[in-house]
Design goal:
The structure holds 2 protein chains of 2 kinds.
Chain A: E1 4-5, E2 10-14, E3 19-21, E4 24-25, E5 32-39, E6 46-52, E7 60-61, E8 64-69, E9 74-79, E10 88-96, E11 104-106, E12 110-115
Parallel strand pairs in A: 2-12
Antiparallel strand pairs in A: 1-4, 3-9, 5-6, 5-10, 7-8, 8-9, 10-11, 10-12
Chain B: E1 4-7, E2 10-13, E3 19-25, E4 31-37, E5 43-49, E6 56-57, E7 64-68, E8 74-78, E9 87-94, E10 105-106, E11 110-114
Parallel strand pairs in B: 2-11
Antiparallel strand pairs in B: 1-3, 3-8, 4-5, 4-9, 5-6, 7-8, 9-10, 9-11
């Protein structure tokens, strides 16, 4: 079974609009973490934001925020005031367990295109 | 401070050839990882090393071996390359295995084609 599901293969958004990228996850481990990475066309992986399963508040990093709904097992990424440079692939990833190496399971990604 | 470096950047192999992908980090991180990314897919974990001297299999280890040479270096070896191993390979590292809030720092990737 898919542990991380990103249901939007592609999204097109007008510049300056807000955009929400969906991510649902599946785990029975009470301790886990959720990450979002950006992969521009140049190919590098850029860390955006992290949410721990025990964190009380939704994570925010600049224009990025994570809408964490634990009961629904969703961790959607919200980008406010989108910019042309936000055009990229976006990956949601999950780490299970609280100890040991940080083994990440990635979703298949969402390709975001920002139109001027 | 170079972060995570990988060599080579590109490689073309014939079926059956062997090669080693090199990875090094200069951030004094304990844990290191190898992932592969197939076209249109997310990354999948091949092998990881929680700390110097230990290695473990990830999700897709078949056809690969790894060596944690020292704290800085973690290599991935393909003993007999197959076309199914055509992919982009990423190395990554994290500060401490036990603190899972730390981001993984990724290298630039190695694009491997097996013909």
């Amino acid at each position: 079974a898919q542990k991380i599901t990103q249901t939007q293969p592609g999204m097109f958004v007008q510049e300056k609009e807000a955009v929400t990228l969906d991510c649902t996850y599946d785990t029975s481990d009470p301790s886990y973490g959720l990450f979002w990475y950006k992969q521009p066309s140049s190919g590098e992986m850029i860390f955006l934001i992290y949410q721990g399963s025990y964190d009380q508040q939704n994570a925010t990093e600049g224009r990025y925020s994570l809408n964490f709904q634990k009961a629904r097992k969703s961790a959607n990424l919200v980008i406010s005031a989108s910019q042309l440079g936000d055009s990229a692939m976006y990956f949601c990833a999950m780490r299970e367990g609280g100890q040991g190496a940080q083994k990440l399971v990635f979703g298949q990604g969402t390709r975001l295109t920002i139109n001027p | 401070n170079a972060g995570v470096t990988q060599t080579p950047k590109f490689q073309v192999l014939k079926t059956g050839q062997s090669m080693t992908l090199q990875c090094a980090q200069d951030m004094n991180h304990n844990s290191m990882y190898w992932y592969r990314q197939d076209p249109g897919m997310g990354l999948r974990l091949i092998y990881y090393s929680a700390s110097e001297g230990t290695t473990d299999k990830g999700e897709v280890p078949n056809g690969y071996n790894v060596s944690r040479l020292n704290k800085r270096e973690f290599s991935l070896r393909l003993e007999s390359a197959a076309p199914s191993q055509t992919s982009v390979y990423f190395c990554a590292s994290t500060k401490r295995g036990g603190d899972s809030s730390y981001e993984q720092y990724f290298g630039p990737g190695t694009r491997l084609t097996v013909t």
